[in-house]
Design goal:
Helix content is 45%, strand content 0%. With 275 residues, the protein is mainly alpha-helical.
Length: 275
């Protein structure tokens, strides 16, 4: 989720007037009515089943950055205690920038992928030097930091600055590809899925919509064993009923044992109101 320079935007003309889109597949055409149903059902689902997470009670850009870096390739349950410990020890960007890299790396343990604390420390130092300990709102300026890529920049813009910026992590890519495409490898449609993610964000609801997408992918539309029978999108999902081969099942499914999961579990505490 990070690169120091933003590549030329996929789909923009080259100097010779040719498009760079073909290697990434064609655009994904979606009827407006389907977009509307997807948005409405996703937000309704999230209002009832969204997870109560500490980084959803703040719009502080540094806190959002810490959570996003920690959540890269690490499950939420492992991140929760470390997130709280980290902010208790380094409550501001300046505190992190002033700490030694050795101390920062030790504090990061045992989350693993130890390039992440190195990058986070580097972002803090650059932030203090260039922006007075804050983060910029602009996507290109954010992606100029080593360790902040397109997804993380979108998350910061959406969750810290309340902008209607799209995001596309592994969970979101899986959800959008299953619902709107169905078969094939979503990684080969990544550019088109980025465009689709941007087209789906409802005006003024980017924060809730993006949080909902991530929760839905993490708890319902999971990678190996999705809760299809409980999915509010099943009547228009292109991958329903899900087949491990990557698309709809070839034959009508036989009796399926209903799995109890997030979509039919008794609701817990109401999700926190958007900051």
């Amino acid at each position: 989720m990070g690169a120091p320079r933003r590549p030329r935007r996929v789909g923009t003309p080259s100097k010779r007037g040719t498009s760079t889109r073909p290697p990434f597949g064609p655009a994904i055409a979606v009827q407006p009515a389907k977009k509307r149903r997807f948005r409405e059902r996703l937000l309704k689902w999230y209002a009832r089943h969204g997870r109560d997470l500490p980084w959803r009670t703040t719009t502080e850009p540094y806190h959002i950055l810490v959570s996003e870096i920690m959540l890269q390739q690490t499950q939420v349950d492992r991140v929760l205690p470390k997130y709280r410990e980290w902010l208790a020890k380094y409550p501001t960007m300046e505190d992190l920038a002033e700490a030694s890299l050795d101390e920062v790396t030790r504090t990061w343990y045992p989350l693993g992928y130890n390039i992440r604390p190195v990058r986070l420390h580097g972002i803090a130092r650059e932030s203090v030097a260039r922006y007075g300990g804050t983060l910029p709102r602009d996507s290109e300026q954010l992606q100029a930091f080593k360790g902040i890529g397109r997804y993380t920049a979108g998350a910061i813009r959406s969750f810290a600055f309340q902008e209607d910026a799209p995001i596309l992590d592994t969970n979101v890519m899986r959800v959008l590809h299953r619902v709107f495409v169905g078969a094939g490898d979503p990684k080969k449609r990544k550019a088109a899925l980025w465009d689709l993610a941007g087209a789906l964000v409802p005006k003024g609801r980017g924060y809730d919509f993006n949080q909902a997408l991530m929760d839905f992918g993490a708890t319902v539309c999971t990678a190996r064993d999705p809760y299809c029978l409980l999915c509010p999108m099943q009547d228009f999902c292109m991958a329903y009923p899900f087949s491990p081969g990557g698309g709809p099942a070839d034959a009508p499914p036989g009796p399926i044992r209903a799995r109890r999961g997030p979509a039919d579990a008794p609701p817990g505490p109401t999700r926190p109101t958007r900051p």
